Amino acid sequence: MRAKTLLFEQFALVGKGLAHPARLQLLDLLAQSEYAVEPLAAAAGLPLSTASAHLKTLRASQLVTSRREGTRIVYSLAGDDVAALLANVREVASSRVAGVEPAKHAYLRLVDDEATEDDPAWEEIGHDELLRRARQGQVAVLDVRPAPEYEAGHIPGAVHIPVDELEARIDELPDIEVVAYCRGEYCVMSYDAVRLLTRRGRRAVRLAAGMLEWRLAGRPVQTTAA
């Protein structure tokens, strides 16, 4: 029994790494791109000391790796299996935990299901439909994530305009329908982009889910030199 307990203690290390909302946020960001500690903490809205403590736990759980670049410590996910684990945790929580749906609606600022026509951000298309329309030149694909995440990997041919620059740069988009995407299913940036584009008279929809799910589905990914 002692040997069995020791084995299950090793499994529990992974659970410990996942057992805090801040650590899940850090994994969500690292699923997009590697990050140095300071910009990672800023992106997660955490004090530097707090982010460092959570990263230490994630590293002890073998969910992230780190390396030194000069004076910086750069963190990455330990592997694609960790990204898949993050997606599976979300999926199980969504189907089992009653509080997920109202929390999702509050965060993404979604209206009730009965009034979806009032919120253009509800409309979305799937991966296959996006690829079909893009090959036929029917849509412009828009990545609204921060630059480091776009450079680390994006949908081939996607135009990059961070969501906080979109209003000022909207004229850079071709005059066709826009499909916006961001980090994943629970990322608010693509919702905000579609709402903004629609207010400006542009036809826009969201890509179902986002870059995390696109990668995990084995879809093509393009990188850009920094």
From TrEMBL:
Residues 3-97 form the HTH arsR-type domain. Residues 135-223 form the Rhodanese domain. InterPro entries: ArsR-like_HTH, HTH_ArsR_DNA-bd_dom, Metal_resp_trans_reg, Rhodanese-like_dom, Rhodanese-like_dom_sf, Thiosulphate_STrfase_CS, WH-like_DNA-bd_sf, WH_DNA-bd_sf. This is Metalloregulator ArsR/SmtB family transcription factor. Keywords: DNA-binding, Transcription, Transcription regulation. The keyword DNA-binding applies.
